[in-house]
Amino acid sequence: MALMAFVRVPARALPRPWALLRGAALGRTEAAAGISRGARRFGSQRVLVEPDAAAGLAVMKLKDPPVNSLSLELLTELVISLEKLENDKTFRGVIVTSGSAGVFSSGLDLREMYGKKPAHYAEFWKAVQELWLRFYQSPLVLIAGINGACPAGGCLLSLTCDYRVLADNPKYLIGLNETLLGIIAPFWFQDTLVNTIGYRAAEQALQLGSLLPPAEALRVGMVDQVVPEDQVLSAARSVMAKWLAIPDHARQLTKNTMRKATADRLLKLRDVDIQNFVSFISRDSIQKSLQTYLEKLKQKKG
Amino acid sequence: MALMAFVRVPARALPRPWALLRGAALGRTEAAAGISRGARRFGSQRVLVEPDAAAGLAVMKLKDPPVNSLSLELLTELVISLEKLENDKTFRGVIVTSGSAGVFSSGLDLREMYGKKPAHYAEFWKAVQELWLRFYQSPLVLIAGINGACPAGGCLLSLTCDYRVLADNPKYLIGLNETLLGIIAPFWFQDTLVNTIGYRAAEQALQLGSLLPPAEALRVGMVDQVVPEDQVLSAARSVMAKWLAIPDHARQLTKNTMRKATADRLLKLRDVDIQNFVSFISRDSIQKSLQTYLEKLKQKKG
Amino acid sequence: MALMAFVRVPARALPRPWALLRGAALGRTEAAAGISRGARRFGSQRVLVEPDAAAGLAVMKLKDPPVNSLSLELLTELVISLEKLENDKTFRGVIVTSGSAGVFSSGLDLREMYGKKPAHYAEFWKAVQELWLRFYQSPLVLIAGINGACPAGGCLLSLTCDYRVLADNPKYLIGLNETLLGIIAPFWFQDTLVNTIGYRAAEQALQLGSLLPPAEALRVGMVDQVVPEDQVLSAARSVMAKWLAIPDHARQLTKNTMRKATADRLLKLRDVDIQNFVSFISRDSIQKSLQTYLEKLKQKKG
């Protein structure tokens, strides 16, 4: 199982990605999706997975240009990609990074939150929860190689990892800046940030929607290491080697014990959290401000 | 509503301040108290409120000489003053500072805890709880402009704020120093400090009753900024501008979500906490040491 | 009661140390054990207690060569020694240090976890829990004078104290390094570390089994002070004087309120935690790796 085929999972073609994910949760994803393996690389349309069997790791690249917005499809593919790696004993660690220039991920895809039906919002939010639950509790060592801007949901994805290496580029700001858009980071985003930088720094950063440049992100503990831009992957690999020197079983149990209370809090309130999101995002005032924001984005591109 | 009349609320004359506060909780305070508005400034006997409608903020000055002791009356007036600002859409933020030279607040008024009946202790403690609950959960942005000594209850008041600016004067010590007086900071004082400086620093500071000079207070995170004494208000205003740049609704929801668990803990145990206080403070040994302390204070003044 | 006899408690001779400890919990230990007092020093076979009545403190020295492994017997004697000091009003503080050169404590005695019956593992684990519960919640001021290597259970013992002074010797590493041995630090070890160095640093240190040299231990807050090796005790005494300047009653109530939630978590799950330990340690794979490790240790000595 050390060598893998380069296979693109046609996720876009899947009518109901969550039907697939439900299978995935039971370990039946690959069979269900008919994925075969063999050669050097596997992935999906939006997630590129580069295995390094010798090192026991894989590099997972978000590649959904231009800015790796976390759409329902990208979220789904990320979870499936992680699950595949977890089910393959070749891999003990994953470096999560970006294959799109200048951005790690722009965060949740606002188009999923605008002008859709409540059922869509609910499905989307469940996918966001699932991404967090799966990445935050993964038995694999996850190292974020943050090689671009990392706001909002992009920051959340990096916070699920065990370690964060950020490229030393003043444009690569990182933070949960939801309030700047008039929306809010739900309690489990907040919990994750509190666990990372402490209550006081989190309380302030969340209210102000702070986006931190590398030096400041390092100072408050939002990231663990800042390195020159061309050394993000090599630094992530060095850190990974250190983490992989620890016996898996003991490390996994330790991680699980540490993170369980935080994960359980969402699991317990998952449906309420979905309802809250759907009700909040459906408000006229929120829809209007999303519309304004999306139109601005379009004009920028145009 | 941008301009307000200078009105002194005759709180001292009110036979049962909590009857008033109960009205306040229902948004009926002003009607009940017969407060009118109009010109440049409003306030009460002990709390001076200077509105700055253009900036969307008000400066709330504790002015109960000599040391702004948190008596039942001052506590009540602070809560009423805050509530009035919260009910007026002109105001999005409040700078809490002192109008008494050299002291922010000396903390809870020990005379409220000595030689009185249990019912009085209960009423007083409920007022302390109310102050904390209302300030800690205020939807407004609260910035403490700490322009004087800030021990015990004074420190607690500053800790309810969203940000603390401290004057760089070595005499302006800050901390929850209750143990030095032989009394203890209750669990919600402790929780507030833990949320601010972390568990370990709080555990040590609370046991030792540490009063920190400005540089040390900044280092452990008890305050967010230390500035020359004549720049406290201008620094607080600059910080306020930054906080007011965030959409209110998103910021308020974020603050509420972050602080809810801590506030709920007291709400759930409020009556037990009052009983504990009354029973503790009524002990002969505690009364005796308060007596000694109060007599020393008198001699100092005399 | 200021002067004490030098008495060795024949703990090794006790058939059921926990019968004794159960008495201890009810304050009947000394009578039950027939301990008399009088002169300058008391202790047991493995724990030497040097009283300094004038200073109101005692120095408790682990002296179970070569490395102060926390065997069932040493654990029991530590708890009994602490309880004796708690029951004697002469003593308000204890400096916990080592009488064995170069090591504070090597941690839990692995021989107690290998090749024994489940009932033994259960008894041993209950003793580890008891040590933590008694030291973590002691009404006395406990200062750790860490004058040697301080891994795993040794580190835990130091973390129960109110303050840690570490000798500045690069060989004196400190940390909860359980994962390196393929075992895990249970949730209450984790809680104690989180309370000391915060969630993020703890999460990382626990997974990596980090053993920190003095400068790093000081930086993350694992210890409070690093001093030249010959000044550990004098530094601990200076700190103790500061802590003993605080009225006992207020300090004790504050400590109790701060630590109660963490202690209660274990008390509530104590039996489950024992069952988890017995079931984990009884696994063939764990027994095999302990065997390998113990054989290596023997060869080293031989």
Automatic annotation (TrEMBL), chains A, B, C:
Signal peptide: none annotated. GO terms for biological process: fatty acid beta-oxidation. It comes from the Eukaryota. Pathway: Lipid metabolism; fatty acid beta-oxidation. It comes from Catagonus wagneri. This is Enoyl-CoA delta isomerase 1, mitochondrial. InterPro entries: ClpP/crotonase-like_dom_sf, Enoyl-CoA_hyd/isom_CS, Enoyl-CoA_hydra/iso. Its EC number is 5.3.3.8. GO terms for molecular function: delta(3)-delta(2)-enoyl-CoA isomerase activity. It catalyses: (3Z)-dodecenoyl-CoA = (2E)-dodecenoyl-CoA; (2E)-tetradecenoyl-CoA = (3Z)-tetradecenoyl-CoA; a (3E)-enoyl-CoA = a 4-saturated (2E)-enoyl-CoA; (3Z)-hexenoyl-CoA = (2E)-hexenoyl-CoA. Belongs to the enoyl-CoA hydratase/isomerase family. Key enzyme of fatty acid beta-oxidation. Able to isomerize both 3-cis (3Z) and 3-trans (3E) double bonds into the 2-trans (2E) form in a range of enoyl-CoA species, with a preference for (3Z)-enoyl-CoAs over (3E)-enoyl-CoAs. The catalytic efficiency of this enzyme is not affected by the fatty acyl chain length. It is found in: Mitochondrion matrix. SUPFAM superfamilies: ClpP/crotonase. Its main location: mitochondrion. Homotrimer. Keywords: Acetylation, Fatty acid metabolism, Isomerase, Lipid metabolism, Mitochondrion, Transit peptide. GO terms for cellular component: mitochondrial matrix.
